[in-house]
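Hey,
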Amino acid sequence: MKKTISSISVVVTLATLFIMPTQAGAKEMTNEEVTFDRKLGNCLGCHMIPGGNLPGTVGPPLLAMKARFPNKADLREQIWDATIKNPHSMMPPFGKHQSLTEKQIDQITNYIYSK
């Protein structure tokens, strides 16, 4: 019994130290941070984006996006699920698979659209 209580104490302490502060003190990520974050969409893993470091070359460079997507909603749809227009797309369907939140998809769309 004493060992169980001790184990519970350790779990609660670790949760308090590592989980709670990140949720309570988490700062709002900028559009650029969400776009470049390697743990979120990881856009740089496949695309060259102005201002990004170590870009991939699997996807097309994300340049002149307003010319390529005059309607910003079309770009958002592409990020949400690229397989809608191309069933063989290598781009993950971030929205359909809920890999990113709707807000994160909006942030990435806003950042990419500005390039």
